Amino acid sequence: MKTLIKLEENPNINMVGKIYEFIDPTKVYIPILTNLTFRKNDYIYKNNYYSNYISSISGYVSGSKKIYLNNKYIDSLEITNDFKENSHIKRRKKKITNREELIENLKRFYLFDLINKLDSNKSNLIISCVDEEEYTINEFMRLSNNYDEILMTIDFLSKILKIKNITLAIKNTNAKSIKNVKSIIGSFPNIKIVLLPDNYLIGLKTNLCEFLNLKEEDSLLFTTNEIYDLYTTSIKFKDITEKYLTISGDALAKSFLINVKLGTSLNEIIKKYCKIKDKEYDIFLNGYLSGIKVLKKEDIIITKEINTIVINKKNTNCETECINCGACYKICPKDINPKRCFFNKTINSKCIGCGLCNYICPANIDLKRVVKGDMYEEKEN
Ligand code: SF4
Ligand code: SF4
User: How many domains does the chain have?
Assistant: First the structure.
């Protein structure tokens, strides 16, 4: 493993402990990936799925718009909330007792990422409470607020999968705040808590397994929010219509965690909850280092793939000429030569988009965008 680094702290970020709730948006948007046809004023029930995306509210179709999702523009349906939360779905009530039943149940919620993880036999179960990006608290706050449900679901999962070696991995910076977890962990003797150094990319499966001295191919890794999703869908048999979103950055008067309905427009969240101090700022989706820069906040809706929004003062450091220092190559965890890719304009499929090359480059060259193949800005210009 390459030596992992601790990221520099930003003294201008003011993180508040309070969790905001925004579960009554006036509109939500549902990405439409197939040829579904809707007319204005069609009624949409809460909890209905349309091409794998859920309607998190009930209401009427009031329009459509293009949104930016997973590196491309796609159509979405605009639903105006009737604030009735009408749902007509009947979910399973019978307790899940084996892997097949669990997978079958997860299919009803389109949780294919989780299903893929459950598809093979492993001997170690790792639950990661690591928020990789600085000033992101989704995983940690989920554990702090729902420790009962999380521990119960880890226990449920280990019994279903017949795994005895279970590790709950937490960054040492969060150790002091997990008193509640420690107070009931005795009831779950199979679960071992391990504290991790506060280094960037420690939560990557390869790095975590190496740190824990476990074979990667024998290990199954879930985040605490994924465990909470399992709890919601497979113990409570409810749909996932809300999610945690961290909004942080040095252009904000305060950074915070917010619970939002899936499909809410980023613009509506920013207007309602963000006090932006600086006139000129940049918005990044899913983190400053590993995320992408947002061109138009009106194009973004909150889907299950989005965890963090960073709103930072506009970067005024200009790009200068490469000085051939080699730092980008030395730091890349995937042994890519980002400088070479940048100048040859080639994508490297091994790139995990961690952003360390950009972070270290003294010439402020945006290497990651080319290596990872994120052409969002170029498409727009
Ligand atoms: S963003 Fe890609 S190229 Fe840059 S350091 Fe990370 S893995 Fe390497
Ligand atoms: S880190 Fe920046 S300046 Fe150094 S070799 Fe890479 S691209 Fe050039």
Answer: 3
